[in-house]
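EI: anyone free to look at a 307-residue chain?
SC: sure, send it
EI:
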Amino acid sequence: MIVVPDDFPSVFEGSAAHERAKALGELRLHTGRGAEDEAELARRIGTARVAVNIRAYSRFTESVFRACPDLRMISIWGTGTDNIDLLAAARHNVTVCNTPGTNAYAVAEHAIALMLAVARKIPQIDREMRGGAWPREMLTQLYGKTLGVFGTGSIGARVAELGRALGMEVLTWSARRDHLDLKDDILRRADVVTLHVRLTPGTGGFISQREFGLMKPGAILVNTGRGALVDSEALLAALASGKIAGAGLDVFHDEPLKPGDPLLGCANAVLSPHIAGQTPEVRRDGLLRAIENVENFLAGKPTNVVA
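SC: here you go
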């Protein structure tokens, strides 16, 4: 049996991937709220052998694995695995697969859009014009500036390519091969810092008070990775003090942001609601890849294995 426990808000139901999954055998689809509760998630999985994970709010923890002894595979729609206890998955003999690269172009474009929106002060100028003003702001030219790209997977590599196309000098850092000294050097040199590092126990708070202290006055931070990569209090302090010129954020410490969150009052922050990969092409291709991973696993040839 295959189960989709968390298709809310629904993207899977009625899709080409849904039709393709039906051909694999018994399929159970849940399109209502509730999978954020571990007990309910475990109940929905039940005796299924395969779970297709749509939403990051579903937490596959030790207790969930323990309650679902028949589970042998989780196929994630997306790249992030921070909602899954990978060590627990290994202990319970559960293979975890994801869909790397399917959202790379869309997320990279969004990262560049956030960078441009902050540098050119587009939201601020738009608001002022709608209020009757004719602002004469000094803006930031990106040609000739330095872009620091942290994370060199498919998204980071595409951002680096687009940065070069804008005429920027691009410096890259990889968690797999590079060291702390290089990270610090890039932070000191970059006019724009963009984050594409996977969230792991070792990368939480990747940018904190220490890192903001190293950055150039007037630098720009862009984060389309995970909110927890950046220490939220340090970010607020850097924005309020003018230590950095601004931030373009698609991910947050708390999603969705609650009314009254201090970030909502930061005029030098451009915000979007974790939507960088929301294009028809990404949805179609990613969901199909998730089901393709299930097909390959059932055929004894798993693909895109994370753990």
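EI: The CA atoms of residues 143 and 167 lie 5 Å apart.
SC: 👍
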